[in-house]
């Protein structure tokens, strides 16, 4: 899958994409404003997707997209 999201107004903490349900497979933790694109390989058991923020994350996430890629 390809995950894309934008972080603006960042001032603290981290946020990262993750798949879960079977094992948990996380993407790279981000800690700055920017547009982030990341490809993550999962198995059939990771049926849920979301963004996981640290308890100290301060910022806004927008333009959140998830694409299935071959």
Quick rundown:
The protein is mostly beta strands and 70 residues long. It has strands at residues 2-12, 15-20, 25-26, 34-39, 48-53, 58-67.
Strand order of the largest sheet: 4-1-6
What proportion strand? Answer: over 45%
Mean pLDDT: 95
Number of helices: 0
Q: In total, how many beta strands? A: 6
Radius of gyration, taken over Cα atoms and rounded to an integer in Å: 12 Å
| Multimer state | single chain
Distance between the ends: 8 Å
The low-confidence runs, each spanning 5 or more residues with pLDDT under 50, are none
Helix and strand content put the structural class at: mainly beta
Based on CA inertia axes, which overall geometry fits? globular
User: What letter string, H or E per element, gives the SSE order?
Assistant: EEEEEE
| Helix-residue proportion | under 10%
Main sheet record: 3 strands, antiparallel
Summarize the structure in words.
Helices cover 0% and strands 59% of the residues. It has strands at 2-12, 15-20, 25-26, 34-39, 48-53, 58-67. A three-stranded antiparallel beta sheet has the order 4-1-6, with no helix packed on it. Strands 3-2-5 form a three-stranded antiparallel beta sheet, with no helix packed on it. A hairpin with a 4-residue loop joins strand 2 (15-20) and strand 3. The radius of gyration is 12 Å and the shape is globular. The chain starts with a strand and ends with a strand. The mean pLDDT is 95.
Key descriptive features of the protein:
70 residues; 3-stranded antiparallel sheet; 6 strands; 0% helix; mainly beta; globular
